[in-house]
Amino acid sequence: MSEQKDWRYAFFLGCVIPNRYPMIERSIRDVFEELGAELLDMPGASCCPAPGVFRGFHIPTWLVIAARNIAIAEEMGVSTMTGCNGCYGTLRDAWWDLEHDREEKKHVNKLLAKIGKEYKGNFEPKHVIQALYLDMGKEYIRGFIKHKFKDLKVAVHYGCHIVKPSDKRPWDGEYENPTFLDEIVELTGATSIEYKEKFMCCGAGGAVRTAVKEVAADFTREKLVNMREAGADIILNVCPFCHLQLDLGQLEVNNFYKDIIGEQFHIPVIYITQLLGVAMGMDPSRLGLIKNHDLKGVSPFISIQPFLDMVKEQLI
User: Could you name the CATH architecture of 8-128?
Assistant: First the structure.
C-alpha cells in the first residue's frame, strides 16, 4: 500500500445529494474515511449555485455565491470537494474565472465584505473522482481492494461538467476520450464496457429536464439503448443529477417511449464510491445500496437488487 497522506477536504454536498440521494453522501463519507481522508462539514454552505440556472441568468450573482462557498472552505484551510458534476462545474469555473480576472475578484470581495467574508482563491475546488484519481492515485486505492468482481459489465457515464470546459479542468489533456473513471472502476475487477455515444449528456443538464422533460428523456433513451446493446449490467456515474436522470429517467423513458424501446429498462444505477466500497469489503447497506421498496417518489427508482445479487455471486 502506498504511503498515506494528510488528505482533508471541505465536503460540499450541493442540493441533489441531501434531497434525493443521501445514500451517495453516506458512501462518499465511508469510503473516504476508510481511505484515511478527513471530510469536514461546511456550515452555512448554500446552493453552488447551479450553473444551468444562476449562471444562465446573471453571472455576477452566480460568481459571488460560488465565491462565498469557496471562502467557507478557505477559512478551514482546505479545498472544497464535491460529489456533483454541476457543483464542481460552478466551483471550479468560478475559482478559475476569479483567478484570471482581478477586477472581477475585487468586485466579488467588495460584496463578500458586507457579510464578513473574503475570497482568496488559495485552494482549488475538487471533485470526488479528482481526489481519488489525482490526489490518492490508483496504486494507493488498489491497496484497499479486498474483493474483485469476476464478470461485471459497467457502463460508465462521465457527465458533462467533469471534463469541460477543458481549459478549466485538471485532466492533463484527457477531455474528448477520458479514461480516469474507467480506470478507477476496473480496480474492482469490473469491466468498463465501450458503448456508442459514451460521452453524450444524460439529458438533464442545462435545465433541459426542468424545461422539457420529454426531450431530456429522449437523450436518456438513446444512452440507455446504447448501454443495453453493449451488455451493461449496471450504470455507474459520478454526479447525483446524472444519477437522477439515469435512475428516475428510466421510468420516464419507459413511459414516454414505451412504443419504441421494446423491453422496458431496469438497469441498476450505482455511484462510484458505492462500487468502490463494495470492493473494499464494506457493508452494502451502509453504502446506501438499498433493496427495492414500495415507496412512491423515493429513490432508488430502479431496483438495485440485480446488482446486490451480483455482489453475492461474483465477488472473489
Answer: Up-down Bundle (1.20)
pTM: 0.95
Averaged pLDDT, 141-161: 96
* Domain coordinates in residue numbering, the chain: 8-128, 146-314
Distance CA(68)–CA(8), nearest Å, equals 19
Q: Beta-carbon neighbour count of residue 164 at 10 Å?
A: 16
Neighbours of 3 (CB within 10 A): 5
Model confidence pLDDT, tens digit, residues 173-225: 777 899 999 999 999 999 999 999 999 999 987 777 776 888 889 999 999 99
CATH number attached to the domain at 146-314:
3.40.50.11810
Residue (of 115, 67, 114) closest to 90 by Cα position:
67
* pLDDT tens digits, one per residue of 233-253: 999 999 999 999 999 999 999
Q: CB neighbours of 245 closer than 8 A, spacing ≥ 6?
A: 202, 203, 204, 209, 216, 220
Angle (nearest 5°) at CA 242 between 241 and 243: 85
Angle subtended at Cα 45 by Cα 39 and Cα 48, rounded to the nearest 5 degrees: 100
Contact 81, 12 (CB under 8 A): yes
CB 124 within 8 A of CB 82: no
Q: Can you tell me the distance from the alpha carbon of 117 to that of 120, in angstroms, rounded to the nearest whole number?
A: 10
